[in-house]
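Deliverable D4.2, example record:
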Amino acid sequence: MRRTVRALFLSVLLALPASAEATFSIVARDSATGDIGVAVQSHYFAVGPIVPWAEPGIGAVATQSLVEVSYGPKGLELMRNGKDAKQALHDLLEEDPHPEVRQVAMVDARGEVASHTGAKCIPDAGDTTGNGYSVQANLMSTNRVWPAMARAYERSNGDLAERLLAALEAGQLAGGDIRGQQSAAIVIVKGKRSNKPWADRIMDLRVEDSPKPIAELRRLVTLWRAYRNVDDGDALVTDGKVEDAMKAYSEAARLAPGNDEILFWQAVTLWKLGREKDATPIFRKVFARGGRRWVELVPRLVPAGLLEDDPASLRRIQALAARAKRAR
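Output generated by the structure prediction step:
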């Protein structure tokens, strides 16, 4: 009898997927911008390639619990072919031999949401849907996790990334995964597809292994914002809007004050624009902190047109390194 029971149990396990994604996540559409996003945290290595899926102009999917990863690409395909989130999820559950162990949520480009928490998901498990979003969790330390996520998303201000992070932070504060923390990810895409696919994927950040993955994910989002301001500043310079560009560069430096890369390129741009007085203290700071590598990089920028082929000007920049060294 015991052998029969063991054999039956083993056959069930072998029929199920190998990985268990005990996770809390959120899928959402920003009604103000149309942007679509998904964010997730799990006590599982590298959750980013498994749970969150998103496609510009189509929607987002979170697939977790005893995970069937194909819900991600298949769900997006069904929505791409005209089905809304509810229809897409219904179709996938219908063809799944084990829907009782799945937890899946979808949001489409119109903001319609659908969610499913199978009856055999490891408790505590559940989901909550609201206007344009769904939060879901399984293997949680308490059933307060997903309601806390929903409240945080609804009450938070800021852009979609900020609201998704607020939901994850609230879920962790409410108890989170009963096993602890390990990895996290956030993906945000535009609600309308353009002819520039590289620009339609707004954010795709992952923390593969960390004792505090949500805090690390927030740090990466802040750094992403800093680099986004640098890109905006460069575009504004190209358009001749120098003062607006300076504001963008200053915001980038504020968000990432210890980042020599951002400061260096800000100084290079200022110098080329003839604003040596503004560039000088920035170069000094970079040279003092970053050492010779930044000094040696300066003349290499000339062939690319990033600095003028002016030996006297280049010497003035490089001389700032010696002054910075004496000032330390």
